[in-house]
Amino acid sequence: MWFIFALLSAVFAALTSILAKVGIEGVNSNLATAIRTVVVVIMAWGMVFLTHAQGDISQISRKSWLFLILSGLATGGSWLCYYRALQIGEASKVVPIDKLSVVITLILAFVFLHEEFTIKSLIGCVLIGMGTLIMVV
Known about the structure:
This protein is mostly helical. It is built from 6 helices and no strands. The chain starts with a helix and ends with a helix.
């Protein structure tokens, strides 16, 4: 099931890039990010209430709060930079560079989460990096 959700995530991310590139024309990138964020917040809280998960909020640990807040700040930074890059660059070049996050995530997961970094992971990282360079140059 995780694979289906991951695949849907990729499809929605692709749609996000194309729709954003069209929608951001003539709009300040920070304002565009704020509008997008409001939509995401409404949608996320809607899912919380739809699935009756709001009662679980009191069970979240301090550690989880801290890391969820830090993750939110990282997301905000990512979105602000992404929208600015998308506004001034071509989507076909911005998006591949943005997807270098896959390589960076694998490295950070190895260093900080002590996840396994296999030869397959290394080859994948190299191929993603080379593919990004080929697409951008």
